[in-house]
Amino acid sequence: MEQAKSALKEYFKGVKAEWYKITWPQKNQIVVQTITTVAVVFFFTTIVYLLDIIFKGLFSFIPGR
After folding, report:
1. What is the residue-wise DSSP string for 22-49?
2. Does the reported pTM lie above 0.90?
3. In 3D, which of 42, 22, 23, 45 has the Cα closest to residue 34?
4. What is the pLDDT of residues 4-43, one digit of tens each?
5. For residue 33, what are the contacts with CB-CB under 8 A and spacing of at least 6?
6. Could you tell me the CA-to-CA distances from 63 to 5, 14, 24, 51, 58 in Å, in that order?
């Protein structure tokens, strides 16, 4: 039990040491990346929606539907 407690303490010491090595992004970088992500998601969502409309129209020409 003592060995597990010691290992856990060492683990959290390592986590704390690594925490201070993190370089956090600047606010403007986060804003730009968020806007880019939303724009890409919107773009591909629009493409999928348009393809859905196109295929729905094409499938309407198939007899028996």
Report:
1. --PPPHHHHHHHHHHHHHHHHHHHHHHH
2. no
3. 42
4. 889 999 999 999 999 999 999 999 999 999 999 999 999 9
5. 25
6. 72, 67, 59, 21, 11
